[in-house]
Amino acid sequence: MMKLNAKIILGLVAAVTLVLGTGCGKKEEQIKGIKIGVSLYDAHDTFIAELMNEFNNDITEEANKQGITISVETEDSEGSQAKQNSAVQRLIEQKACDILCVNLVDRTNPTAIIDAAQQHDIPVIFFNRELVEGDLERWNKLYYVGADARQSGIYEGELAAEAFLENPSYDKNGDGVIQYVMFEGEAGHQDSIVRTETSVGTLMEKKLKVDKLSSVIANWNRAQASSKMSTLIEEFGDEIELVLANNDDMALGVIDAYNSAHIMNSKRPVIVGIDGTNDGKNAVKAGDMYGTVYNDKEGQAKAMIDLITALAVKKDTSEIQFTNGRYIRLPYVKISQQDMH
Ligand code: GAL
Questions:
Q1: Whose CA is nearest to atom 12 of ligand 1?
Q2: Residue 321 backbone dihedrals phi, psi, to 5 degrees
Q3: If you write DSSP's letter for every residue of 303-318 in order, what string do you get?
Q4: Residues 55, 59, 61, CA angle at the centre, nearest 5°?
């Protein structure tokens, strides 16, 4: 299903390109069409694939609304910054874009992309993987669309806290301390760092006592999380009372491991994720996951499209509501089982 989505996205060099012979960045009085170059860090990442599905659906609507043609060319960097740099270079040199949307592979290394874009006067909307502020400030046509990682960690911590406060039996050994395991996304990713810290911090603020049994990195990935969880189940067995995962795919991997170990739901820990992906929400609905935090892919896709239209069609960003500077951040939403019925 995920692979299929990615294929659809990559196959979608949408619509007809009818750009009045405009080169990248050249201004026209009457815009008849725009070309968008999109570069993804990894098209197989579930959240990114779902976000791009929204984006590609909404862009068609936007083209109709604006009465213009919009073409989208999407590149998958497959986790390689070098690959991303050359794809972006190609999009720019072949005049295949009026605007770029970049989901950085290495969020600390956007220099080659910024330099190339600035040289050809192509605005860049970075999204989901947040570059450092100093880099965004290097040129006034660089933007960021994403969310507030801190809020997602706080919401995840609040969901976990609510679980234990409302159901004392989740403290399986009754010692008044929550024995937990943390599943982290990629090392160095803003969401991994901040979600890890704030989810546990929130539990402690709520005066719950916690004891970390283990913390593992599973790179947002379901299969990696499943295999690491199988090892943890062998090591800690019934001792684990809570699993905090930096995203839903890893929480689903944890559930896969419990399924493979044939451990029934009542014997499992409280499992909380973040993203509210389709599978994540289904797991909450089924009672396999206690809750998740919705990473507003609809809002983020819409914000990117509004910004694209403002920059490339209207040539005026005065109606865009920036959170601060040239940042747009969409709020997260808590999802627990009650919300799914
Ligand atoms: C996060 C999301 C993860 C993963 C990551 C990729 O915001 O929660 O699931 O998609 O972005 O950068």
A1: 129
A2: -90, 100
A3: HHHHHHIIIIII---T
A4: 125
The secondary structure of residue 310, as a DSSP letter, is I
Residue with tokens 């295999």: 227
CB 241 within 8 A of CB 178: yes
Alpha-carbon distance of 255 to 313, in angstroms, equals 46
| Residue 280, φ and ψ in degrees, nearest 5 | -60, -45
Distance of CA 245 to the CA centre of its chain: 14
What local confidence, expressed as pLDDT, does residue 25 receive?
45
How far does residue 312's CA lie from ligand 1's centre (Å)? 27
Both structure tokens of 328: 């747009």
Q: What is the mean pLDDT of residues 228-232?
A: 98
pLDDT tens per residue, range 95-129: 889 999 999 999 999 999 999 999 999 999 999 99
Any ligand 1 atom below 6 A from CB of 275 = yes
How confident is the model at residue 82, as a pLDDT? 98
Round to whole Å and give the CA distance between 6 and 45.
9
Residue 52: both structure tokens together: 């791009």
The pTM of this model reads: 0.92
Strand intervals (E) in 15-150: 33-40, 69-76, 99-102, 124-127, 142-147
Q: Would you say 75 and 91 are in contact if contact means Cβ atoms under 8 Å apart?
A: yes
Residue with tokens 């014997």: 267
Residues 6+ apart with CB under 8 A from 291: 159, 163, 272, 273, 284, 334, 335, 336, 337
Q: Which domains does the chain have, with CATH numbers?
A: 36-147+298-331 (3.40.50.2300), 149-294 (3.40.50.2300)
Read off the pLDDT band of 340 (50, 70, 90). confident
For 157, the 3-state DSSP assignment is: helix
In tens, the pLDDT along 281-309 reads 999 999 999 999 999 999 999 999 999 99
**Pocket of ligand 1 contains residue 91 by CB under 6 Å:** no
158 lines ligand 1 (CB under 6 A): no
Mean of the per-residue pLDDT values of the chain: 92
Pocket mutation for ligand 1, best pick of 222, 295, 330, 335 (most atoms within 8 Å of C-beta): 295
